[in-house]
Amino acid sequence: MLVVRIISLVFASWFATVNPVLEQAKAEFKKANEAFMQDVFSVKMNYHIYKQAADAKPNDIKTGSYYKNGDVSYSLISGIESIRTKTSVIAIQAEEKTLVVSNAAKKDNNISMSPDSLLKFCSQIKRTEPTANLIKYELIFRQDIDLEFEKLEVFINKNGFVLSKIVMYYPRQEVPSQDEADQTEMIQPKMEVIYSNYSKIVSLDKSVFAEQSYVQLVAPNKYKGVGKYSGYQIYNQKTK
Q1: Helix (H) or strand (E) holding 187
Q2: Around Cβ 91, how many Cβ atoms within 10 Å?
Q3: Nearest to residue 232, comparing CAs of 94, 90, 102?
Q4: Which of 19, 138, 169, 225 has a CA-to-CA distance to 26 between 20 and 30 Å?
């Protein structure tokens, strides 16, 4: 899950001297991460996608939920279901009626690079308190490094010390124009992930977390869908 890799920071000693901001961040990020280390919990997520970082209104909004029950997690984001067990990852797209089975991921996350790696590329780390109940961290990256993000903003709610929001700022990029054919335009997008409704109770039926609720192994390296997934196209991407 995206949130775990963002807030589960193991700060390397890449400064020659102790940096007080890093020391404070180390303690606060560790505390915030405790919510995601529980055996059972759930959280709601809203994704706000902006074409330009300076835009006041998002161009697209997606919603999602994440549930953890022991070693298994289930997420539903914009109609895409994802189930992660000790042995498998199952991804389901209802609109296309496809189901993909692959090997278990080493970590439950949706971010392509570990913040442990990102931190050493930071030119600055800033900490502020925009309100009495909110802590904000800015991770600003060096311009000579080719990374997915130029900057990350991490917001922690002091009430319960839980993650409130992550904002990802992407580099400027040239894309096909949506207004004029055969033309291009420059955009600098950003995405906000807003977390809410934290709970230590998972209201889903236990069958949601069981692999056999989705697929059945009928032959070596061959699965078939079960129940409402029986008519889905199954893709087995598991490797030995």
Answers
A1: strand 184-187
A2: 17
A3: 94
A4: 169
Q: What's the length of the chain? A: 240
Q: What is the residue type of 147?
A: L
DSSP letter assigned to residue 90: E
Amino acid at site 71: D
CA 73 from chain centre, in angstroms, equals 13
Can you tell me the distance from the alpha carbon of 98 to that of 184, in angstroms, rounded to the nearest whole number? 33
Residue-wise pLDDT tens digits, 86-101: 889 999 999 999 999 9
The whole model's pTM is what?
A: 0.78
Write out pLDDT tens, residues 118-147: 666 778 889 999 999 999 989 888 888 777
CB-based contacts of 81, cutoff 8 Å, min separation 6: 74, 75, 90, 91, 92, 94
**Three state DSSP letters for 119-186:** HCCEEEEEEEEEECCEEEEEEEECCCCCCCCCEEEEEEECCCCEEEEEEEECCCEEEECCCCCCCEEE
> Token digits for 230?
């029986």
Which long-range contacts (C-beta less than 8 Å, at least 24 apart) are formed by 91-94?
92/214, 92/229, 92/232
Q: In whole angstroms, give the CA distance from residue 161 to residue 128.
A: 15
DSSP label at residue 113: S
Residues sharing a CB contact under 8 Å with residue 117, sequence separation 6 or more, in sequence order:
none
**pLDDT surpassing 80 at residue 236:** yes
Which two three-digit tokens encode residue 201? 């109770």
